[in-house]
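At this stage, I needed to go through a protein sequence along with its fold in token form, as given directly below:
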Amino acid sequence: MRPVLFIIFLVGIISTTSLAQNKKIDSLQYCLKTQKNPDSLTLVYTELSWETSYSGKNKQAIVYAKKAVALANKQRNYLNRASAWNALASAYDELSDFKKAEFYFLKALDYFTKQKIIKKQASTLNNLGTVYYSQSNYKMAIKSFYKALKIKERYKDTAGIANCYTNMSNVYYELNEFKKCEELLLKAVDLYRASHDKEGLAISLSNLAGIHAQNKEFKKALNAHKEALGIYAEIDLPEGLSSCYSNIAFYFKENDVYDSAEFYYYKTIVISEQIGDKLTLGNTFMSLGDLQFRHKEYKKALVSLKKSETILQSINTRESTQALYTHLANTYYELGQYKNAIDYNRKSQVIKDSLFTIENSKALSDLKTAYEVDKKEAELKAISKVEKEKLRFVIYAVVAGLFISLIFSFFIFKGLRKNKKANKIIARQKELVEQKQKEVMDSIHYAKRIQQALMPTEKSVAKTLKDLKK
């Protein structure tokens, strides 16, 4: 029998000491007598259901929750009714009535989903996952936990993320993926310490101790259990004490300390009976039977195992029942009751075959992959958003540059137009100057021709001079 892991239930209330809790219950009961507003009364009954369930009085918690539902129906206040369904489902879960717990959680989830009340939707998904886990429906459990985790991550809910990590680690534990289980629990412990969540820290430490025990690291396991026990005692959480005592008993059993192991198993049984926790009670009688079997006390072992069978048959939990049938088969064999041994061995095998089929393992793997893909898509969307901002900046810069360039182009064009006009004037003036210059040159040439016509030629001058000399 492996160590018991404790699963976290999101109830929306803070941990308190027993004295403070009793005072709160007394205060709420006083409000029932003085409060006249029906909606307020509904909330008081719902809160009383949570508080009484938290203190282990789950049957009374169911009574309060049903009164809250009835009042909410009468007032047609569907939000209050959904909240009361959550409280009712929680109480049924604590009593190991998983079918009713599942039914009311699904009704609450349907309302919160349709109304887009996201935070309550996440808490309900987490709680629904715990119900599936208790029924060994690991496919639906991990699916619910992943959905809850995605919402918690969106709102950066540190404690909520840690809760999901802790609960998801339990599923990986059942799948024998101990490394992944330990990785998630270590993350949860860090988040709980950072958020000062004592109850969450105690639960994750207790579960981490279970992993250490599974890995035969018993000193680490015992130290973690001692820290968890101190916190459980401080906040007076009986379920936590029960789980911790059971795991300490497992530690002593694995180290062959019979008396101490038996002592802590009986402490677990007492608390489980007080709070009506059938699942833990059935599992503890099974563990006690295993301890007695190891010490060859086969008749005592059979008594303990049959008590476990009576309890576990009243609830729907295949994983525990399969392990119990294996223990019973071995015990009957040692007692020489071979027919019973064969019958229980066959029963064990039938349940075992139904627990982990290839399809279920693949489905869990697909869910994990889907979650990683969703997470990656969210990261890519975030990156894409940054890139869009960069692209928008570039576009604005380019548009601004083009606008500035257009202004410059306008002034350049305007200047060119002025230059062109000036060039035309200059060209015209040049033409006029050239025309005047031509006229002047023509006049000069004309005068030269006249001058040349009036003046004697060199030959005539030479002839005249020659005649004069004679």
